[in-house]
Amino acid sequence: xxxxxxxxxxSDKQKKLCLAARSVRQRLVEAALTKAERRxxxxxxxxxxxxxxxxxxxxxxxxxxxxxxxxxxSQETNSVLQKAVIDPIKKFNTIFPHVQAAVKxxxxxxxxxxxCQNKFTRYQGRERTGQNLVKLHSSKDALQQAxxxxxxxxxxxMEEMPRLYESRIQYFEPSxxxxxxxxxxxxxxxxxxxxxxxxxxxxxxxxxxxxxxxxIQQSLAEIKALSITVD
Length: 231
Fold this sequence. Notes:
89% helix, BIN3/RVS161-like
């Protein structure tokens, strides 16, 4: 019965891992931040200001192109996640019903041994008549056969279950490695895309966060200095 529980737990863990991978995949599909940026760039392109100001329109278009490129990389990462993690987990989970069936069969064999043992013990205590002796030998043969079947099934499970349990690490290592590499690739490409976009918007000038903040404050100050604005 203990072996049965050991096999249930890994199966449940695989299902939870599969659900977690699907959740990550769904988030990549939704890509909420990227979609929000795309809506922003598309809305900006349709404004009269963007249509009138060529420089602003060009910047927004470059921004939108960067988001399209980033979305393509997200789709590639999503594909790797499906092929390298979700599909292998689903395939691995198909093993457990067969293992559970083997464990159940072993338990049934053990029950049969106990049943035959009780029957044999009962006839041992009876009077040694001809009929009882025949039943005693018959119950002994049945007990020996039941013990042999149980021993064979138990030996197979005791050999194979630890191997299956230990094989999980070797099975999932390539999947996790592929997932991590795809995440690194996605993050690297996102950094490159936004970096190139930043250089494009700033004329290849490398601006720090403090310099961006200073420029924003300067622009706000110039706007507030206009006579048509109210502080």
